[in-house]
Structure formats: structure tokens, C-alpha cells
Amino acid sequence: MTTTHQNPHQTIAERADHYPTRYVEQPGLVDRNDPVVAGTAEDGPFDGDHLQRIEEKGYTQVPELFTASEVERMRQELNRLAGDPEVLADERTITEAGSGALRSVFEVHRTNELFRSVARDPRLVARAEQVLGGPVAIHQSRVNFKPGFTGKEFSWHSDFETWHAEDGMPTPRAISVSIALTENHAYNGPLMIMPGSHRRFVSCVGETPEENYRSSLVMQGAGTPDEGSLTRLYEEYGIDVLTGGAGGAIWFDSNCMHASPGNITPAPRSNVFIVYSAADNECGAPYAAPAPRPEFLGAREHREVLQSH
Amino acid sequence: MTTTHQNPHQTIAERADHYPTRYVEQPGLVDRNDPVVAGTAEDGPFDGDHLQRIEEKGYTQVPELFTASEVERMRQELNRLAGDPEVLADERTITEAGSGALRSVFEVHRTNELFRSVARDPRLVARAEQVLGGPVAIHQSRVNFKPGFTGKEFSWHSDFETWHAEDGMPTPRAISVSIALTENHAYNGPLMIMPGSHRRFVSCVGETPEENYRSSLVMQGAGTPDEGSLTRLYEEYGIDVLTGGAGGAIWFDSNCMHASPGNITPAPRSNVFIVYSAADNECGAPYAAPAPRPEFLGAREHREVLQSH
Asked: How does it assemble (chains A, B) (predicted)?
């Protein structure tokens, strides 16, 4: 569908927008207009079952994709970052509202040697290429730390909704991988996904404030789906709670409706998170924001196209 | 152990206190000094496996203890209460901080005909008698409603710690039953228990403010276990997430370390909660509070001793 809504942020020549959000007057569900899995089992390490799960549920899990010693190195590096005053002071570092504890460090695929090599690891790049059907580039990377006792919840959202509205990502041809550095239990703030929800796009209501990213990374505002749409998606798809051991990877489509509950247990939770986008899915002007977010949150140009072979 | 700590709230002739809390200077773990299961499989409906689980883990689950139509009647009654202005204005009703939505209605075994009959149902009373080894009385009852999207978390605590400190309950010879009126999923704010933790008592630090109950039912303060003790218990016992269908009952010892996470999903959660105490475990002066809590939170005298036969 080509929307006829008036988009106040339309800064480049009039674009068709199949995924209107924030400038709409009513919330609602739009069917996805882009492929989920573009490649086949012959194209890479994912077998047919994995690709089918991504196609149908929007996600798949690969246990032990990284070894215990690789995980240990990443965990040590995350601990080092959490204690580095320069990192804590960097604008690419997000700290917990209230406690000031480390929550996320962004753009680690550029700033950190270890995580740069992880992001370019063929185990990841080849799978991303396979799903997206060609060369890929990194849209975003970060390491996340959800402490015990005080880890805050993150409410339901589609990452693509934000990337489309605020970064100008044209289509949801992007896939994220979350590499667990700690065990994900059902009780310590695990990822929850509505399986199948990646095939529907929830148009959200509410204009994007200027520099929205400064608060939205800690507390959600614009881009929050309405309760009616979430209830419809829940009734249609239910909720999967994704658990698994350290070193395992969760691959999930950029438009999955997902959330994570708070973590009130003593068990902290950390992971490495990398978003691969199809190389030709380069960001343009934001679809619904006064200005694009900074480069560390969403790569503006696909300067570094990755290839696994 | 007979504590030698100075208890400023010692209002009756000096009592030995095996479970010192709040008036202590350091937090710490004390081994339980009272039986968990006093009866045998011959004494009532629980078989040996159930009693063993209560003895070892501190809890057991009985699926489908109430029928679908009984659950439906209770759910309708809870909905009626949630819309009754008189109930909402009653001091025995707790509403969610912020939204004002119904969270709990206390003392329903006295004020509400349906829940009075539930609390006296032989399926419940006979099991409570069996565990506690004799006649029982109700210490507290309530119906709980945790709404979708905004259901708040409840941090780790032992109910007995509060009942001992603030109600003057001498020993943890009390058992609670939670009857699910909705399905308990891993994702909609389920009960979490550290299995085995009922054998340890966590002495908490921090004096009880006057009329503490007015805030503690919504937000926890005094009686909050320290993170060090919680981490020790977690490392020793782990965490069980208790899921199950509507109509199922969770029985758990009064000293279980338990919590429930927030509920950010669209699926609300409600239950009926009744605490049975051994008839001779009558409350005296509070062990660590300026004055006892009101009768609706903790029965002062066991005026109504229940018997299933």
C-alpha cells in the first residue's frame, strides 16, 4: 500500500511508505510487504528447519554457536568495559536510569577489537547473508548488560519500527543476532517474542520528539504499540520465552514484536547484539522523525559491506 | 537459638526469638527450628509425593483442584469486586500505585460469601490440616489481580518474616494456597520460589516504620532481604518458576523465599490466596514492629478454628 497520510517529516522526494507509523492518526496492523527469508538451505550454514522457523516464527535459536572460552573472553571484555571510566562517559554508552549501572555499549563493532572480530565472524555473517539473500552490512551493534535485582523491563516493540521511523531504514530486510554471554533463564529477564508477529507491522501513534533517542533507550515513548494491537497480536500468536545457555545465539527478524521483563533475580544477564541489514537496504531520510539518530545507533551508509567468503 | 539482641519492640515478657529480624544489626541466615510437614499421607488427601515436595522444596502444585465452572464463578466475583465502588474505597482493598487499578482485596473469607465458602472448602482445609498436623485457622485471605501490561513486580521476601515481625506469628507453621483463576504462564508475572529456602530464615535489617503496612503492600521496604543473602540462597537453591492452568493450586510454606516479576504482557493474572496457620500458632505481640497490623492483614486471634471433618 502507498499511504496517503501526510508525513510532516517527508524530506526527500515523495516516497511510498508501506510501513506508516507515528504520523498516522490511528494505530493499526499492516501486512508485511517484504521477504523474511530470501535465501535457501544451499546458500549457507542454516538448514531448512532453521530457515523455516525464521520464516514462520520470525526467529530461531542456535545453541553453542560460540565456545565456552570465546564466551569467557567476551564476558571479560564486557566486564572491562563496565569498569572503564572512558567507556562509561562515552555518549555511546547507556546507563540504567536510577542506579547509573552499565546497560549497553553501542557501536562495539567499530570501537572494540574483540567485538569487531565477533561481528565479522563467518558463523554470523554467512547466516545473515543466507537469510537476507546477499551481502549485508551492520546497522547497529551493542553489548547489553542486565544486572541482577534491578534489571529494568523493556516493553513490547518492533526494532524495525524505530529503524524505519527514526533511521530511515526502507524495509525490514534486516536480522538481529543476540549472543548469550550468560544463561538465559525464564526468570532473569529473557527475550520474549510473539512468534509470527514479524509478518505484521504495527503502525504507532505519536510524533517523534527531537533527540528522542536520548530517552527512548532508557524509557520508551514514541514508537510504543497500542495495547489493542498488542492484544490482537497476542491472541493470534501467543508469546514464546527464549531460554538457553551461554554461547547460544538467537536470530530474530527486525520486525518481531518482542520485549523483555525486568530482572529481579540475583542472576545477571548479558549478551552481544548485532544487526545485519541487506546491503541494498541502506537508510535514507527518517520516515517519521525530525532528524536521523546518530551513526552509533543506526549506520547511515553501508560503507562496510561484509562478505563471508 | 535464643537471641540476645536488644529488641525495642519487646512488649510482652521477654520471649526467646529464634527468628530475629529488623532489630538485628547484620543480615544473615538462620536455620529453621520448626517442622515443615507435621502430618503423614494417612492424615489427608495429599499423597506421600506431595508431602515430600513440601518438606524438601517448600511447595507443591495440585492441578485442577477447582473445576472450570468453580473458577468461572470466582473470576466473575472478582470482576464484580473490581467494579464495586464500595469495595474499591474499602481500606482492605489495595490498588496499584499509579494506575489506581485493583490489586488485592483482603479478608475476603469474612466479607464475601463465595470466598468464605472457598476458604472453608474441605479440599483446602483438609490439606492444610494434614501439613500442619492438626486444626488450622485462617491468618489472612485475599484475591489478587495483576493486570496485563502494567502488573508490578513483587520482590523477594518470606511471608513469615512479615507475619513474625509485624503480626507476632511465633513460628512458620503456616501454609499458603494460591488458587489460579487465570493461566499462569512463565511470562505473565508467575510465582517464583527458591526451592528449599523455607528451611532458612533471612534476618533482615531495618526498623519497621509506624503503619508500615500502608506502603509495604504496594512497595517493599522493611523486611526486604539483603542482596548478599538472596544471592547465597539462589546459589544454593536456584529458582523455580511456577506455571499451570486455571483451577490449579500452589501450596507453599510461609517461609519460602518467593517473588513475582512484573507483567508486561497482555495476559492478566488473578488468584485467590488463603493462609492457614496451625491453630496453636496464634499471634502475640509483634516481634519487631511498634504495633500489630490491622486484623484484615493478620488475624490476631484464632477465633474460628476450622476442621474439615
From this structure: Homodimer.
Please report whether residue A11 resides in a domain.
Answer: no
CA distance A160 to A137: 15
* CATH code: domain of residue A41: 2.60.120.620
Residue in A187, A234, A259 nearest the CB of B192: A187
Question: What is the DSSP code (8-state) at residue A41?
Answer: G
B155 touches chain A (CB under 8 A): yes
Q: What does DSSP say about strands B93-95 and B249-253: parallel, antiparallel, or unpaired?
A: unpaired
Chain B residues inside the 8 Å CB shell of A186: 186-187, 241
Helix or strand holding residue A57 (H, E)? helix A48-57
pTM: 0.90
Chain A residue numbers with beta carbons less than 8 Å from the beta carbon of B241 are 186-187
**Does the beta-carbon distance from B241 to A155 stay under 8 Å?**
no
Over residues A180-205, mean pLDDT: 97
DSSP state of A221: B
Phi and psi of A123, rounded to 5°?
-60, -30
Nearest CA of chain B to the CA of A235: how many Å? 9
Burial bucket for residue B210 (CB in 10 Å: 0-12, 13-18, 19+): exposed
A8 in any annotated domain: no
**Distance of alpha carbon A308 from alpha carbon A74, whole angstroms:** 21
| pLDDT tens, position by position, A46-104 | 999 999 999 999 999 999 999 999 999 999 999 999 889 899 889 999 987 777 778 89
What ipTM was predicted for this assembly? 0.86
